[in-house]
From TrEMBL:
Organism: Arachis hypogaea (Peanut)
One GO MF term attached to the UniProt entry: aspartic-type endopeptidase activity
UniProt keywords, alphabetically: Aspartyl protease, DNA-binding, Hydrolase, Protease, Signal
Record-given protein name: Peptidase A1 domain-containing protein
GO BP annotations, alphabetical order: proteolysis
Length: 477
């Protein structure tokens, strides 16, 4: 599997005609079905040991899929794959609906003005992967001095760092003890008169301390104290990080203590690091259902690989938190489809465009593009038995009893020439454990396109915000 993925990534820097010999690829049905079974992690393999004792690089962390967190804590509330699949699709639909609402409205939180671009700004009303428990990927970081370690959701579409804190008036269950600011020598509350508090949307004041409030699209929220605190990543200390210390929180799941926002805004964790890491970070998302391995999240210019295919980031001043990229087209079976590039562009109102998002699972495409894409794929898979629609997917197959099948290649064509041909497991996903597979794309409810984490899995992705590029490959995970 890894060798096959490497071959596809090599196509990134080649002209589109070079891929004609690879119109189809083998897809291992049996292996993919077997991988849907979650297995509990043995005590000796706990994540705490790997995160707190190992630090191969100063700015590198292990990135865990929610399935691994579930297995670690034996929280098998959804035992069978079909139930987990349906739950994930419900979460995903809510995530997408919230992103669409957010990018369709010029809220006060995202005005293109001086306050929003100030290094001390602090966003609110963010929509994150925590909605209805929709956080898919987690890292383990240390909070305070001395550090106490917590799992937090990683979200490339949010500009906030926050955790639940003692004393807690309303908190959801998390796997680690609540963070207690009283035990940290580096915790410092932000005064109401500070510049940080002045620029905080929906800021309040209580006994001289600045209060924050963040509302999510599904009614979830976090409220508490705005503070400066030291965060620990492996052996690296990041002092005076602005965080929300939540005393009233609702809507989380699977044991995460809070959220690590990696959006493009100035008060995301990446924005706060500034010159320390050159505005750069990279990640590799481990495949869903994998409880025996981890992906990675790394900050700094050292995370920018040689040999990646670099695609320009597109700045949308109305929504600076998101990472927009230029998509020029889609391909099936080695051929680029006749889809207008305008379908994927940001319009004069700042709407539409293509966003890379770690919190969305399934890639969404404008209806006209999706229908052409789907129809081309269906035309090349007439030899495979069809299955009824499942959840958000209208194109599914009954592969029960198959060991291996051949499917047409699927590609993203980026502005400027590079293209990415996906491994089959990134677009043929199991809807159950008995052989129902679906084409893992869906129509967007608006003109916004979203490249989701299923399509990003296993591929090294590098975001160079300072220079305005996103890189794909050359490595896999």
């Amino acid at each position: 599997m890894a060798i096959r993925i490497h071959i596809f990534l090599l196509f990134l820097l080649l002209p589109s005609t070079s891929a004609t010999a690879f119109h189809f690829e083998d897809f291992n049905v049996e292996e993919t079905i077997a991988a849907t079974e979650l297995k509990p992690i043995k005590e000796a393999d706990t994540l705490q040991q790997s995160e707190e004792e190992e630090a191969p690089r100063l700015w590198k962390l292990k990135l865990h899929h929610r399935d691994k967190i579930t297995a670690l804590h034996n929280t098998f509330t959804l035992q069978d794959h079909r139930s987990r699949f349906n739950s994930r699709m419900r979460r995903d639909a809510k995530r997408v609906a919230s992103l669409v609402r957010r990018t369709a409205t010029r809220s006060n939180s995202y005005k293109d003005d001086d306050n929003n671009n100030d290094a001390f700004g602090f966003g609110s009303n963010v929509v994150s992967g925590t909605e209805e428990g929709s956080g898919e990927y987690f890292v383990r970081i240390g909070l305070g001095s001395p550090p106490t370690y917590q799992y937090v959701v990683v979200d490339s579409g949010s500009d906030i760092v926050w955790v639940q804190c003692q004393p807690c008036s309303q908190c959801y269950n998390q796997s680690d003890p609540l963070f207690n600011p009283a035990t940290s020598t580096s915790f410092s509350g932000v005064a109401c008169t500070s510049a940080v508090c002045d620029r905080l949307e929906n800021a309040g004041c209580n006994q001289g301390r600045c209060r924050y409030e963040v509302s999510y699209g599904d009614g979830s929220y976090t409220k508490g104290t705005l503070a400066l605190e030291t965060l620990t990543f492996g052996k690296t200390l990041v002092r005076n990080t602005a965080i929300g210390c939540g005393h009233w929180n609702q809507g989380m799941f699977v044991g995460a203590a809070g959220l690590l926002g990696l959006g493009g805004g100035p008060m995301s964790f990446v924005g706060q690091l500034g010159g320390q890491t050159g505005g750069a970070f990279g990640y590799c998302l481990v495949s869903r259902g994998s409880t025996g391995s981890s992906g990675s999240l790394e900050f700094g210019r050292e995370a920018m690989p040689v040999g990646a295919a670099w695609v320009p980031l597109i700045h949308n001043p109305l929504f600076p938190s998101f990472y927009y990229i230029g998509l020029s087209g889609l391909g099936v079976g080695g051929s680029k489809l006749n889809i207008s590039e305008e379908v994927f562009q940001i319009n004069d109102l700042g709407e539409g465009g293509v966003v890379m998002d770690t919190g969305t699972a399934v890639t969404r495409l404008p209806s006209s593009a999706y229908e052409a894409f789907r129809d081309a794929f269906v035309a090349e898979t007439t030899n495979l038995p069809r299955a009824p629609a499942v959840s958000i997917f209208d194109t599914c197959y009954d592969l029960n009893g198959f060991v291996m099948v051949r499917v047409p290649t699927v590609s993203f064509y980026f502005s400027g020439g590079p293209f990415l041909t996906l491994p089959a497991r990134n677009f043929m996903i199991p809807a159950d454990d008995v052989g129902t597979f679906c084409f893992a794309f869906a129509a967007s409810p608006s003109g916004l396109s979203i490249i989701g984490n299923i399509q990003q899995e296993g591929i090294q992705i590098s975001l160079d915000g300072a220079n305005g590029f996103v890189g794909f490959g050359p490595n896999v995970c």
